[in-house]
Write a structure and sequence with these properties.
- This protein is of the alpha+beta class and 185 residues long.
- It has two domains: 3-77, Ubiquitin-like (UB roll); 86-167, DNA polymerase, domain 1, CATH 1.10.150.
- It has helices at residues 23-30, 86-93, 103-116, 122-128, 140-151, 164-167, and strands at residues 3-7, 10-14, 49-52, 55-58, 71-73.
- Strands 2-1-5-3-4 form a five-stranded mixed β-sheet, with helices on both faces.
- Strand 1 and strand 2 form a beta hairpin.
- Bound molecules: FE2/S2 (inorganic) cluster (2 copies).
- One FE2/S2 (inorganic) cluster is lined by residues 97-102, 134-137.
Length: 185
């Protein structure tokens, strides 16, 4: 089947997509966007997190066909050309990146949190990132990175980008309606 999807602001069309193919496969294997990682392919780790119409989802659990006519934003779409997004820069400066496998998902989840709650508490940060597993860092540096990004207005720049139904959503860590109960996002 053919899939038409806007990815990071660019309209993309891909033919011969298999009905069972995931959005993650479409992004990584067909569209040349390897930022979202495939660590578990079961909705458990959050490393494949991308925005779908402004809502973070596990791309491994979304069928590529479900993205037809919709908008996807990946970790690659957070940066402004060569300039890192403040959230990305904070992760680098706080030493929150080791092997980096979890990092793209954490960046999207942090970006999502800070665009809803500009100065989250530690509890709100932990809850918002609970669906993102990291095997390397012990999480302390990740928490430092989120705090640092918050002090720099890490979510402010993209507020206008958010879909209207998400823009006013109250509270951090509220259950995410991804339409897929298996997804930890
Ligand atoms: S690859 Fe682990 S949640 Fe998708
Ligand atoms: S930095 Fe290696 S899994 Fe998080």
């Amino acid at each position: 089947m053919r899939v038409n999807v806007e990815v990071n602001g660019e309209q993309r069309t891909e033919d011969n997509v298999w009905e069972g193919e995931s959005l993650l496969s479409l992004l990584r294997d067909r569209l040349g966007l390897p930022g979202a990682k495939n660590a578990c392919e079961q909705g458990e780790c959050g490393s494949c997190t991308v925005y779908l119409d402004g809502v973070p989802v596990c791309a491994c659990l979304v069928a590529a066909g479900q993205a037809e006519g919709r908008s996807v934003r990946t970790v690659e779409g957070l940066a402004d050309g060569d300039a890192l997004h403040p959230v990305q820069q904070a992760f680098v400066e706080a030493g929150a990146v080791q092997c980096g496998f979890c990092t793209p998902g954490l960046l999207v989840a942090t970006h999502d949190l800070l665009s809803r709650v500009s100065h989250p508490s530690d509890g709100e940060i932990r809850e918002a990132l609970a669906g993102n597993l990291c095997r390397c860092t012990g999480y302390e540096h990740i928490l430092d990175a989120v705090r640092l990004a918050a002090t720099r207005g890490g979510g402010r720049r993209d507020q206008e980008w958010r879909s209207p139904d998400r823009a006013g959503r109250p509270g951090a860590g509220a259950p995410r309606d991804t339409g897929d109960p298996e997804c930890e996002r």
